[in-house]
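Consortium newsletter contribution from the modelling node. Members have asked for a concrete example of what our holo predictions look like. Here is one, prepared for the iron/sulfur cluster complex that several groups have been discussing at recent meetings.
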Amino acid sequence: MQAQLRIRRYNPEKDTSGYWGEYTLNNINPNDSVLDLLHRVKWEIDGTLALRRSCAHGVCGSDAFRINGTNMLACKTLVSRLGAGETVKIQVEPILGLRVIKDLIVDMEPFMNHYKSVLPYFINDEAAPENGRERLQSQEDRARFDDTTKCILCAACTTSCPSFWANERYIGPAAIVNAHRFIFDSRDQAPEKRLAVVGDTFGVWRCRTNFNCTNACPREIEITKAIAEVKKVLATGEI
Amino acid sequence: MTTLSGVTHRKVQVRSNFERFAFLFMRLSGVTLLVLAVGHVLIQHVLNDVHNLTLEVVAATWNSWGWKVYDMLLLIFAFSHGMNGLRNVLEDYIHNAKTVKIVNIVLAVFVVVTIIWAGIAIASFDAAPFINN
Amino acid sequence: MSSLMLTLRESARYRGRSGHWSWVAHRLSGLAILSFLIIHVWDTANASFAPNVYRWSVELFKHPLFGLGEVGLVGAVLYHAFNGIRISLLDFKPEWWKHQQRSATISWALFLIIFIPIAIMMINSIVNHCNDSVNCWVFPRLSDFIS
Amino acid sequence: MAQVKIHTFDAVIVGAGGAGLMAALYASRSANVAVLSKLYPTRSHTGAAQGGIGAALANMEEDSWEWHSYDTVKGSDYLADQDAVDVLTKEAINTVVELEHMGLPFDRFPNGKISQRRFGGHMSKTTGRPVMRACHAADRTGHMILQTLYQQCIKNEVNFFDEFHVVDLIRVDDTVRGVVAIEIATGEFHIFHSKAVMFATGGWGRVWEVTSNAHSLTGDGPAIALRRGIPLQDMEFFQFHPTGIFKLGILITEGVRGEGGVLINGEGERFMGVRGYAPNVKDLASRDVVSRAIYLEIKAGRGINGQKYVHLDVTPETVNRYYEEDGEDRRIDRAYIEAKLPDIADFTRTYLGVDPVTEPMPVQPTAHYGMGGIPTDVHGRVLLDAQKNPLPGFYAAGEVACVSVHGANRLGTNSLTDLVVFGKLAGKDMANYCQTAELLPLPDGAADDVMAEFDRIRNSGGGVKTYEVRNKMQVSMTENVSVFRTEETMKQALEDLEALRDEYQKVEIQDKGKVFNSDILEAWELGCLLDTAEVTTVSGLARTESRGAHARDDYTERDDENWLMHTLYYKEGDGYRLDYKPVTLGRYEPKPRVY
Ligand SMILES: Cc1cc2nc3c(=O)[nH]c(=O)nc-3n(C[C@H](O)[C@H](O)[C@H](O)COP(=O)(O)OP(=O)(O)OC[C@H]3O[C@@H](n4cnc5c(N)ncnc54)[C@H](O)[C@@H]3O)c2cc1C
Ligand code: HEM
Ligand code: SF4
Ligand code: F3S
Ligand code: FES
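And here is the predicted structure:
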């Protein structure tokens, strides 16, 4: 099997603007991941290709790219998902809405700043139980925010959202997912502070239920649902 | 073993702001418009063929206060809903805070002027001359 | 404004699923209805303040081009309404989220089922109108009405 | 040297996995600390850990830290230092509770307490059966630990230098003065001048071809330490987890076998029992035993279709058939598997197109965890020799450190415990150290050595590609120094490594730029891999016994008489020196290890 790759290239030290690099790889396997192919390009053909990756099995969140038009993790996308037959065409470009530093690498700083803006850490200033043990929590309370604890901060969601493309001040689905994780944690005591952030002008109201985020999430988090839950808390005042 | 079960629901203080209000308003007015706007469109643009429309036909409708009120409600809801929608769209693309402010003022003034102007038009409409002729 | 160009281009390039296209359609239909509404409101006000201008515009709207626009308007209102209700429901019933794909399909289906016969009827009426009056393509002149 | 930017801190922590972040939280309470990581902190491989973190909370059934200690020592094949193991297991309880107080969303028992489950090797003394000791958050415990610690670091405004690749340690005689790092985004060299330095750089599983480890786990920490005269301890002990996905190495947790899954060879036999590897516990034998069995089956040509894998079968049909054969009443169905093993199902469906409910999964042993590393005491202080003299100001914690609590074979769930317990102790100790220690001046040209090395790589013109050398190393190490080794295979590996060293000098990179030049960094990482591979092989060759993960065909027995001691490997010029230090024994006398 053969893969025809089109990879968006840009080297700030050489190029004034981006261009498509075209590479043909022979002897590929339908079970190869797109990351495997990118590695082959980098290792065998062009060592200057720059991309981030680490775990290679979809848990570290390094390699969210736009593959054949849609955001996904390169390491979790197998060739067989992109096409069958003798040749497969695969197009890889950086995720959208963040500044491209080099090739497939974007500046994650704005994304991380949005994440940090929702106070993404447990806040409970009450004394811990006297017996020196854990706080208790019912299984039902634990289940309410289970889905949103799965986030690996890959940015596939935020950079698939047209509201974010339009205006990078929108805090984006990933930040809301992480706010949700704490707002719905019965042990946490600062939901109001977080709600003030996500309820502000550039918070949840910018979400137009586009669902690209949910479709892009490699952890299959029901993002739009989580956002709707946060909106509902803001609307009703009840968690 | 003692079991701990159930979901904890908590009340929170939510600071209201314009965006929250706008969000609720879009949904509320949307539901209202489902009746008002869809009804209006179906009656005026589908059941009543435009090709038969004349000032006299309009006059016949506006001869009743019921329809006058219906149209005024439609005017208020559709216009404010639509213009707030436009504001949403514009704020996506205009990033300069000052420009946004100016645009919003222009939009608001336009909404108010339009509603007053058209409201007066509907309220003060006297159907008599067109019906008797 | 470059973000506008970017969004326009990428909204078309991004290979989103139903939700994405529903959003595109919702936004475009909303803006379309609004542009019509602005004209419509100011024009209808003329019925009260300048009846003759209004008579002219009523004739103008009988032109086949405006007729087609009107078909589009009805389509836009219907789609926007169904999709708008879908969004409101999902926003207040997050647990129904799992039916998102189906809900999008339903709102498209409802729209098409209702819109197609209406569109046929309306286009038919335009055709009939042109059959009846030979000069249906001629735009009425304002001066003829306010003399 | 004008182009080198200098930063000054009390302490520098290299690595932002579980160990680095835990240390950062504690150290930054009283010291001015910088955390350097070549990855964004949340990309660290701690996030990949699935099963759980071991602590004798006794939330569901009777348990105690002494039992946990015993299991750990026995699991280590008696090579662990028992005083350190006691610290680990005692501190585990408070530390796990502390993680909960930091908001870590553990799963819950119906009584609202942290949920625990059974895991290989963790036993109850009263029932003689596995005990529920692994505290977990679904099957992404490591992910939750990493996220929670990072979140707390944000809360406490820890200074992060993300995507700074540390390439050297500044050591002057018996003091450390900081580290040299490359800012990946710009390619600039930076010096972090400090009173204390901690290495928490994780593992080096990329030495082998098939591994559960991330691409980034290239042994930078051990290699840098080694080059600066610090010994590496017990490097011959590297754990191979029995069930990695064929070729990919992605881990399939022990839980699969815990739920009744069985291993089947090419002849359709349940070989763990039939072939006599573990007639009693069969598929639930310990990791080293099962890995060896799979390896032997494959070697005997009994892989599936003669290939290098066996099947792990958890389909209800098979599982229930064996339950019936074994006279067990339990039966499982599709829903049960979906509920108990959701992530595994996701992995095999994504990567193999195999639905574990209806088909068996192809598995092979996968390089997983380094028991050895930089020798430290329980406070993370790096020890320079067999007399346990420390190198003041230099610390190590996490997988890169060797305390040693895992000895020759680590028990499942004990690594996460190790990270947080010793991360914390090391962080505290380092902060204390900074209170009294002075900031010693930087030597002239502190970054010169490593800058010269990078210049050499940049300008080398031998036409050899990094990946070719790396592949050859991985193939040779997998062939010769994996689940089984003999004198012959290890000598072969050394020969290969020597040839590869020469080839390494001819590696030619294509990217001559500065911004995000991962080409040059990969080449440099390869140097680290070659170093760790060599230490592993040399240490293994010298140890003429079989113990835990170090299994030799030519010395099949454990030899407590001669080998109840830790290996220390020193780099000396172009050669090396081996030394040994005694194991700290305690309550548990070495006994034959039977499960
Ligand atoms: C798939 C898998 C499952 C596992 N499951 C379990 C389990 O269930 N229970 C258990 O107890 N253990 C488990 N383990 C083992 C355990 O997860 C690891 O041993 C542990 O996470 C290592 O943590 P660490 O903090 O030492 O290093 P890591 O988390 O690997 O972090 C290393 C850090 O060092 C940084 N770094 C490395 N080199 C450099 C450099 N040169 N310059 C700058 N920064 C650098 C990296 O960026 C990273 O931040 C598992 C391991 C794997 C691979
Ligand atoms: C007929 C019933 C209608 C319903 C149920 C409805 C519903 C909605 C809802 C819920 C939204 C918010 C969408 C979001 O936040 O994602 C919206 C947006 C909008 N509506 Fe309506 N609406 C209706 C009629 C109208 C009419 C008559 C107009 C024009 C005057 C209009 C113009 C708009 C515009 C411009 C937007 C903004 C679109 C965007 O932000 O993408 N709508 N509508
Ligand atoms: S919510 Fe999903 S897509 Fe978004 S950052 Fe988290 S894991 Fe990635
Ligand atoms: S794509 Fe964007 S609009 Fe909302 S549903 Fe997702 S955040
Ligand atoms: S490399 Fe870790 S998510 Fe893809």
